[in-house]
Amino acid sequence: MFLYGIAGMAFVALTVAAGYAVVSRLKLGLTTLETMAAAPATGIIGATWIALLAYLITGRLDAGIALSAAVMLAVIIVLQPWKARISIDRSHLPALAIIVAVAFVFMYFCLMSYIDGGYHVAYPLYGDAAFHSAMITSFSQGHNYPVQYPFMAGQPLRYTFLIDFYSAMTDWLGLGLQWSLALPGIVLLSSLLATLYFFGTRFTGRKAGGLICVALIVFSGGLGFVYAFTDWLASNTALTDFLSNHYLNYTTIYEYNLVFSNFIVVILTERTALTGFAAAALIILLFYLTFVRRGEEPHDLRHVMVFAGVLIGLMPMVHTYTYASTMIAAGLFVLMQFGERLAARASLMDSLRVLTDRGWFYFMVPAILLALPQMAWILGQVGESFLRVYVGWMARSLIDIPQFWITNMGLELALLIAGLLIVGREKVRFYLPFAGIFVVANLIIFQPWDYDNHNFFSYWLLPSVPLMAAALLRVYDIRTFGKPLFAILMIFTVLTGVMVAWFMLEESYVEISKDGIYAAEWIAQNTPKDAVFLTGETHNHPVTCVAGRKSFMGFYPWMSTHGIDTNDRVHAVASMFAATSEAELYGMMKEHGIDYVYIGPEEINSGTYRVNRTLFDSMTPVFDRTGSDGYRYRVFQAPA
User: Fold this and answer.
1) 97 and 163 co-located in one domain
2) Is 37 exposed, middle or buried (0-12, 13-18, 19+ CB in 10 A)?
3) Residues 132, 267: one domain?
4) Domain edge (last residue) among 476, 506, 536
5) Which residues pair with 258 in a beta bridge?
6) Residue 585 maps to which CATH number?
7) Do 450 and 589 sit in the same domain of this protein?
8) Which residue among 317, 381, 553, 603 is least packed, with the fewest CB closer than 10 Å?
9) Domains contained in the chain, number
10) Could you give the CA distance from residue 336 to residue 361 in angstroms, rounded to a whole number?
11) What region, left, alpha or beta, does residue 630 occupy, with left being phi > 0 and alpha being psi -120 to 50 degrees?
12) Tell me: the pLDDT tens digits for 372-417?
């Protein structure tokens, strides 16, 4: 479709170009390469919001794509980014090439790789990749309007789905499911890591510092390698066999209370976090240039703060945790600067001028006003507050908190503390508001599942790694033994993360089988786009993940984490699958607005429902195929 995705690739290129046009014409104090790094996140967030607003009005994805493309073309023509001053420091190019290569490897090989007719994913992404695939195809292959959960038809979608909506546009333009996930992921991860590289370079004053920051993020991990070594000894197997056949994500093993997940795992599983953190890295860099490196590059304070405020104000529907984290840090910046003026015996009115003198008024107004309707929409489905005080996050007790963080962070924690001692007062002052995020997330749980607080800690890691890099560089500069000590520290700091990366790239799991894809393609071509299916509860169901059709009740555990009660629907599905006659089945289907029944291995092997196979074997399907796995794949249509 659309010349094998050329239209989709052109749309992504146009998005990045529009992002560059906006950033290049504002006086943000960024170099040309930093502007290029900022372009993907800026462009994707803006383009998606424009398209989504058009979609909400018209219910047509093509209308959203057309309006977004037209606005982006207009932005480029009006702003004329080619007139901006271009100065490229070529010494950064090798590092940026490495960053793009890293982004490509993770996105291409870990997310919905098409192998032997089926979609494969890296093991840590097995659940979340299906979630996002269902979101994407519900717009691109189905007709998700009014916007609702694809695995709970009729339930309004109050999830942060904007990056999936962007991917849906590229899928509709011909990129296909794999590349609609991979290509935006590549440009966003490149944007995130490149921005972090430039922040680290500025913070440490050395390009090596920027590269170390990238390495510490990509291979983040604590002392999990110690547990891995113990498990290897207990396994009585060769090291190569252990590495090839054992679960190696030793940043997330609840048995050992390892829960500070590797950063790359977080942003691959939660695509919303990838978009949010790419924007967060840019805002952190802008704050650093504004408050620490003032005057180094020409910049306009109002431009910086309004741009940052608008970007973060658009964030709740992109990634709520990024919005919350940034606003916590911004609030602490204001309080700290206000307190400093009071301590200097300024009057209350003079102290309040920090809002204008430091530009916070220009940041807070768009950040709050743009976010309010989004937050009202997201919180509209939550029947009760999940917010609760719990000291120590997932530490088992107060006394376990130090050991918990030493185990989960390992040498990174020691390097962070060392960095705070050596970088100087001004950089420490800059870091303190971000440290407040770590404190808040250790005191308050924000979601039903305690683990979800890891988003706050992953955000906090972004401004923390430059301090770790500064400590490592100080070790490197020690005469005689500095370089070998640096190498040892670096190896043991990233070893757990390297194991995670190896595991993700080495271990591929079938997300959607070729038989499931065959059935899904028939459904996509032969059923109405807004059809509702009765399906089992598997998370990776081909009806939702590939065909883009809605399930009356799919993988219900996802819904409970979003504050939605599914008990009535689960009971209704159980009753329909256990029906004793066609009349009983079709009567219940009509009552619940269900158009089709899907019976495949997901339903036959369900752990929740008992399918009356005698009834369905006596019925005439509109689709019937025995797959290579030996299972029958059937679709039954309700009578008109």
Assistant:
1) yes
2) buried
3) yes
4) 506
5) 253
6) 3.40.50
7) no
8) 381
9) 2
10) 15
11) left
12) 999 988 877 554 556 788 888 999 888 999 999 999 999 999 999 9
